[in-house]
Amino acid sequence: MIGYLKDADKLALESFPVCIVGAGAAGISLAAKLSRLGKRVLLIEGGGWNETPEILDAYVGKATSPHPQTTEFRYQRFGGTTHLWGGRCVPFDSHDFQQRDHVPESGWPAGAEDIASYYPEALEFCDAGNNDFAISAFGPKTKPIFSEITYLTPDLNEYIERYSLPTDFGKKFRQELTASKNVHVLLETRCISLNCLPDQPDKIASITLHDGNQSFTLKVNEVVLAGGCIDVTRLMLISRQKNPALSYLDASLGKYYACHYDLIFGALRFQGEKPVFDFQKTLEGVYARRKLQFSPQFQAQHGLLNAAFRLHFPAYADPSHGSGVLSTIYLAKSILKPEYQTILNHGTSQPDQNRQLLKHVRNVFLDIGSVVAFTYQWLFKIKLAKRKVPYTLIANRNGTYPLEFNSEQVQDINNRIELLDEVDRFGMPRVSVHWKLTGLDIASGIKYFNLLKELFERTKSCRLEFDQNELEKSMKNALPVGGHHMGTTRMGNNPSESVVDANCKVHGISNLHIASSSVFTTNSHANPTLTIVALALRLADHLNRSAVCSKGVNNEGVTKS
């Protein structure tokens, strides 16, 4: 069932063996799977069905530029950020879990690599099809992205990235969790503290909940923090502040924060053929796109982080593309928030706004046929379709393609999340996010473009063109990917170097687990959602195998079986 704290039987809430804090991709996946296994779960969500100004206040904080503000790209509601998720599903590569000599702080603990074995189930939860990321997923006779790429293997390889519907987990699982006799969801209920008893610092005895009007301390048996990276870290830091016995976590807690960083740069020019640029459907009907990656061996040889390239469309805001469709989209989206306008314009600003708008209007009139055709596609393949085309892809008329570069970031101890003195309406300290690119991040990105340029020079039909000075300048100013927050309760074997173990249990606390991108030891180039879901499904099996799911807490606070 789904309800609110004010209507709940408080004593009955203590009978649930597992309490999950956060109803986003991780929390809902964990709750749904445990329910299907016949286990009883209390799922607590700080938001409701929609965002409100009061709820948004909980995300207000500070962030160093160019990191997005703490209210951006985060949703506190049932379903979490999957409400605005674009649907891209990309797995970690096998070498992402391994210790790499050229990547500081790399190497997940033994056993963590089996997270990848949960990708098939995670893809099902995400509605993204089969666990197949080869181009043959389009069919046995699929042609490569361009004919001469076969000359560049094994150094450069082609894979696909899959897309969900996009799937809003709140909408998808609402009916299942409402009907479930095993799950009780509390909406608009914020967990504001994890509480240990003075004589039992190795166990969470209770959690404090608040619905904006009243607070309630709930005795618990097992707690899983399943919110976003920033929110989970904030709650852990607040609990550490109240429980000095948890000081052994200080070496890692809140530290090693990372985002993927993104750059759209260069001009990839083809002669004699057009590359595969559009979305295609896999054999099971899932939209997917091509991407290019250097092999793990090539990355190690050149000291590179893991990254991927995609062919990109020209900047919407630059009317020289001549496309009536792109100009129509730009004109329609010019009222968006500044951060989204930056994405549309490849991270640059446009001077002389009025003059640019007139050029866009001219493009629309001169290319009205394409605009009409696109309107039809938008209506039937995006607006009304259950499985939607993820976004608009229109090639530059001059035959060149900017490259979109997405890279993992070194998890550096100086990138961190800290508590501020200022508090929100629940009395919880707000957070400050400190983020910047490291020297290795920048150097790796520059190498990527230079090495790719060298590889393309082996071909007859493809050249990558850019100015070296502009590359170095642009890479230093590369932007963090807004919603990809990772690493501040990282996974490892040693409590002096990590916060959770290979099973996501917090070191030194017997009944606290974390299912969040905050546990990522390294972050690959991959969007985190698929791996977050896989991590949560793996944790569900772990909890199910343990005695945790068969226990509850009675009203005297004594554990019962």
Describe the structure.
The protein is an alpha/beta fold and 561 residues long. The protein is built from 14 helices and 23 strands. The protein has helices spanning 10-13, 25-36, 53-56, 119-126, 169-179, 229-242, 296-302, 324-333, 338-344, 353-366, 368-383, 439-456, 468-476, 529-545, and strands spanning 2-4, 18-21, 41-44, 62-63, 88-89, 156-163, 183-187, 190-195, 206-210, 215-219, 222-225, 261-270, 280-281, 287-294, 307-311, 400-407, 416-423, 429-434, 462-465, 479-480, 512-514, 552-553, 559-560. The strands form 6 sheets. A 6-stranded parallel sheet has the order 1-7-3-2-11-21, with helices on one face. Strands 12, 15, 16, 19 and 20 form a 5-stranded antiparallel sheet that branches. It has a 4-stranded antiparallel sheet with strand order 5-6-14-13. A hairpin with a 5-residue loop joins β22 (552-553) and β23 (559-560). The longest helix has 18 residues, at 439-456. The chain starts with a strand and ends with a strand. The model is unreliable at 553-561 (pLDDT under 50).
